[in-house]
Structure prediction request, 1692 residues.
Amino acid sequence: MRRKRMDVLPRMCAGLLFLSLLCATGLCQRSKIDNRCVLSQAKSCTECIRVDKDCSFCTDESFEEPRCNLRENLLRYGCAEASIVYTRGEMQTQQNFSINTSLQRTQVSPQGMFMRLRAGEEMSFDMDVFQPLESPVDLYILMDFSYSMSDDLDNLKSMGQNLAEFLQALTSNYTIGFGKFVDKVSSPQTDMRPEKLREPWNNADSPFSFKNVIRLTSNINYFSQELRKERISGNLDAPEGGFDAILQTAVCKDKIGWRKDSTHLLVFSTESAFHYEADGTNVLAGILARNDEHCHLDANGTYVYDTKQDYPSVPTLVRLLGQHNIIPIFAVTNHSYSYYEKLHKYFPISEIGVLQEDSSNIVELLRTAFERIRTKMDIRADFVPKAMKTEFTSLMYEKTESGSFHITRGEVGKFNVRIKALEYVGGQHVCSLPERDRQGVIQVKPTSLSDSLKITASVICDMCPCEQQQEFNSPMCSFHGDFVCGQCICHPGWRGDTCDCSPASSPNNEVCIRPGDVEPCSGRGECLCGKCQCYSEDLTQRFDGAFCQYDVLQCPRTSGFLCNDRGRCSKGACVCESGWEGPGCECPTSNDTCIDSRGGICNNHGRCECGRCICDKASLYTSSTCEISYSLGFQAVCESIRDCVRCQAWGTGNMKGNCSTCHLQLQMVEELKKEEASEYCSFQDEDDDCTYHYTLEGDPNVLPNTTVHVQKKKECPPGNFLWLIPLLIFLILLLGLLLLLCWKFCACCKACLALLPCCAQGRTVGFKEDHYMLRHGLMSSDHLDTPMVRSGSLKGCDTVRWKINNNVHKQGFTSLAAANPKDLIPYGLSLRLTRLFTQNLVKPDTRECEQLRKEVEENLNDIFKHIPGCHKLQQTKFRLQPNSGKRQDHTIVDTVLTAPRSAKPEIIKVMEKHVAHEAFNDLKVSPGYYTVTSDQDAHGMVEFQEAVELVDVRVPLFIREDDDDEKQLQVEAIDVPTGIAEIGRRIVSITIIKEQASSLITFLQPAYSHSRFDKLAKIPVLREIIDNGKSQVTYRTRDLTAKNGRDYIFTEGDLVFQPGETRKEVQVPLLELTEIDTLLHNYQLKQFAIDLLHPKYGTKIGRYPQTTVTIADPEVVDGVSSMTGLGQVSQSPKGRLSAPLNPNAKALSSREISFSWFPPPGKPLGYKVKYWIQGDPESEAHLIDVKAPSVELSNLYPFCDYEMQVCAYNTMGEGAYSDIIHCHTLEDVPSEPGRLAFNVVSSTVTQLSWAEPAETNGEITAYEVSYGLVNEDNIPIGPVKKVLVEDPKKRMVLIENLRESQPYRYMVKARNGAGWGPEREATINLATQPKRPMSIPIIPDVPIIDAEGGEDYDSYLMYSADVLRSAAGSKHPSVSDDSEHLLNGRVDFFPGSGSGTLTRTTNTSYHQLSSHMQQEHRVMGSSSLTRDYSTMLMGHGEVHRLTIPNPSQNSVVVEDLLPNHSYIFKVKAQSEEGWGPEREGVITIESQVDPQSPLSPVPGSPFTLSTPSAPGPLVFTALSPDSLQLSWERPRKPNGSILGYMVTCEMLHGGGEPRNIYVEGDNPETTLTVPHLNENVPYKFKVQAKTTQGFGPEREGIITIESQDGGTFSQFGGQQYMREEVYNFPTEYTTKTSISHSSLDPHFTDGMLLTTQRVESASSTLTKQVTKEFVSRTVMSSGTLTKQMERQFYEA
Prediction:
């Protein structure tokens, strides 16, 4: 029989009540905030008010506390309000004419604002903007006039009238202009031969950069006439000089003809990519100057500075177009669309459209673009001072990705403008900046609006008024100082509050010695002029008093807080805040916490002291307000009197016939009323299985004074219906037998019919069903596999042609013949190839997939290029098609062909023809299968091979956003071109019902488990927002095996999700076990359900409309709580304990996990906990012994999966272990990124790259790049710019517009979910570095940063997938700082066994080439380059060399490599100055051995690049003033056998040579003793693990041995460790002095190959890591070799 818990102790209650009291008064919540005003120790009023916007200064002469403080603190400490100096910011509206919507012009309100702000202060105000439905438009068309655009020009000449009609439809007030561009008239952009300069092509004009042909005009006839006179021109390279033209169009406002109050549209039409600033073509050796951003058009409108200055940068164009209210529209062809798609995103408002090859759709493109532009508005702030920051928001409109707003024209838009004054800019206070950087007129202007808001803003840097009225040589300062702002500022040589003391004339210290002391000022201060000046610590006053005898940290503490954090410590005592008293400010002065339920104080049975009631008579049942509480120990009282109640009320129970010993006052009642008592006692009577109820009044401690009310009527269970169970079982078995007989009979009939002669004569094919109905919300695919069946004889093959029509439900549905036949639409093509399918084909990045994709696209492009208007194939993918007969394991290829609508019949004809021939050129395909899908219909064919009865037709469903709520598709079998089958069911209809759901609401899981100890089951409910708005759903509990009122309380209600909310919680109260369960030992699993019902506001129920909650019952066995409902638990035989119950783990931090469990039945003496890293063998687990049923595991790895289990033990030994529990530690901030690498493009442009941190401690989410000018002492001298790189895979930026010949400091740090990690920094002057210009025709795949741009341009991220290449004519192919790309050179690869290692001995740090090597030279410009490649199999020494004479070639195919062998690849470059250093890499091709060709890898074999992860955290223990003990754990992922560790020790701030120690062995923990250190000097230690594949990343730690005896220090977890294993560090590390040798140890991380080169000498070991290139190869099925070159920058 179960018993109620009775172990409630009075002291536990008192402790909990006191804790709740403390929390109620705020002690559990308040944390002390540093007061910047006091910490600044400002000496003057002006210095004080500049510390923080909330700082004030007290000028009261008699004020003794710190004068610089918060205003409320100064008032509290006694400073008069009139003596407080506090500066407030101000804001005024200077001009505000309300918006008149009847005026059809753009308007802004207000028009003028004035504001003055303190540093760090922020102000905001509302701004109204109005844009009318119609506004004037200026349209300027800027067209590429290279020869490839000749057909586009011809079409444009004939479109003058169409353009006029388009503009008239937009507005009645318009102008139109025209300009043309090609490229710079210089080499290499233009052919400079005289005959080509005169006429580059037949009937073409001379080349030019940009010409303004037609100024903006409203005369459309004049526009058309002038346009017809134009002829095409030409140039050489593919990228064009359009950026020059865009800039001149923007800045030459008058010559172009832009009007003030109109919308400015610039249409940029081209089919090529673009040149941009410093892209490598015009900056070699600084040929061209930077663009000056001025107008340089001559009288004829020709740009004349094209050969004098460089192209503009992307940020420059964004800034200038924004300042001149110009909105670009990029009309580009498919060939260049990807370039401009990336470009246009960085303009706040811009559009892009696909131009047909002949520009015939330009009018439609402009119409679509203009409609989108009309709904956007961008607000920008120009001329913002450096000391300020602006931000614009709106509750009325949503922001786009580019930062503009979606608006509605014709209504007044509401926006909020926020201006913030910064505190520091570039590391210096804003008040120290020049005046032009602190104040100015900010122009806030919406794009395309001529009106603007002017804000006259400034930062308050005024002096305090009292400092302007200082009294010089004041008598109040003994004529030895100036009286300023209530205090004396002493002259040099004088000090004291009144400047009456000169240190030279006051050597007497006796007045500073306290009676009974020996030292002046108690040894805590300095005696100056007869007065103690107490020492301070950490910028705060630590001691006070006349003799510094008081310590401000030695006042009474409450709960660990000094003066309860409700006062301050002054002269050894707490000075409490208002409302608190007591020695430690621990007592509230009010009696609020002593008020009882009747409103009195302590129920008139006690007194209130220190916020708590001291009761006259305290007992177990007395509450905190001296009231009788029936909830405290109530169940224990119920249990103690239950036998007496049964005996006296009904004469039953254990005391039957002996009721005289009971002294209860019983009162039988008909029904217990709730107001009589707060709780009932309910138990089950074993004699009749009925439940009886009673309650009691009075103090349970005095039973004669307690009245027991007993309910007369018991609750008895209903009669027994168990006899029904066998009958139900019999009926179920009988029904199953009947169903089985029916199924066998039907199957027999079908087999007999198939044997009849009439059924085998012919066969039919047709769809299996005639109708399918689909719900859009439940669809998981955009297609439906529709089965087609064949009946009759299955001998021979049949092919069936089919077609699909979309939207056949619409009236009058015919075809799309009325649509424009020239419209380009995507056609989906599907074919079945003859090759078998492999899993590599679904991975786009595999070599097999890439090779097959290339083969498919080359062959199909060659076929379809003969159809007019067809583009190249895109989006080629591979898959399997189930239920497709005997060829269902063959590969299906899906691809997209863009072609005109009119080309559909020809495409179908070509597909049928080549499928019948089973080949598309060299591409072999299977017969009888193809699919051609257009935008509204599809055609195809399927094949029934012999003996195949069923195949699936893959039906595209044409899902569109604009589909009707119920649409219908029709699939029709047309004919059987091959075979003898007749068509049976010809048509199948598919109906798709589209539900309009604003959001989906669902339970997170379908089942939960909760203990009764929880008292409350908390079930999360999630909302997936589709259309943000209000959502509502009803929840309701439902009985399963658990019953309402006995196991839980019925709960029902509504969950209302407001806009933006995504998570709610349903809470269901759980009840304790009833007596009937206790008596019957009811171990039935108790479960109830919760349903989600009645969704509202467009809401739909999601994946889990209901969830099941399992209740785990508590049980008391031998006084120890355990759990049932979690599985039957029994004690192990022979007295051994069973496994602990309900183990649960929760991560507390990045290095701590809380692990808890319920005790098993029995009396355990303790518990043993095992935990280990998931994936490691359990034998490496850590084992700890604990006594309580919980433990906190510490010193763990961050962001790591751990496994753990626990067992209990007693005198009989260990019991069974629990199930393994998994837990993931939280993230910790990452370590610093890899060292920075620079690729210098020019003296003002550099490419900066870095590697991922060695310890990511989570998932890296972003990087922050900071850079700024420094002086010769490496001290910042200007503002520091910060750039956020939010794509962690893009670890590279391109920084433009740097100052020439100026050193910059660059800093990079990484961020994960835990925050920002430490910075990695480097300082470099680009002028001293060799330049490696890039030559890239499009935006590189790195963020581009404008060093001179404002804050708006700090985060332009522009990417492409092109590889960065160095110029072929680079004179120095050497590696700069071990960090640049090595693109021109030589590769060595060395073959041998996979387990071998390489050791080389040389006399220099670089490896010389042998004399017999052949070298070829090729002269380019002024330098010659030779590339050599060589390979060597590790361990054998045989070297294969390849010489590459072409300096532009950067890859090589290496053949005849052996599988499962490791190769070293080396690359080396040569110029006229000689050979540069080598790049090296190690590759192992892991492959099974093919018996047909055992010396060749199996096609598709992967190559392995693996090294160990970083060792465990470093733990330091100081052994003596000059030595310490260093220990670390084995790497989490060793990736092989650990051979040893490399330990590097160096002074943190430089000085001395680094020490390198190699420690051999592979132990779980390794310890090293390091001697010969210096006291008080910080050292940096690095540890790397080594395997056969090389060294892994470093684990770093910094330690300082301070001057103190016996001190031990730890860098990890605040713990102190001692290790038994000691490595004796030798005095001399090595004695080799004659030679130096290097060993090659490859290291790969994140796709990069690094090697460690260790050069040993007599003094130390130098470790240097350099970046390597490595070549990977893959053997395809055709036997050909392909190559892959991967490069990464990294400098360790």
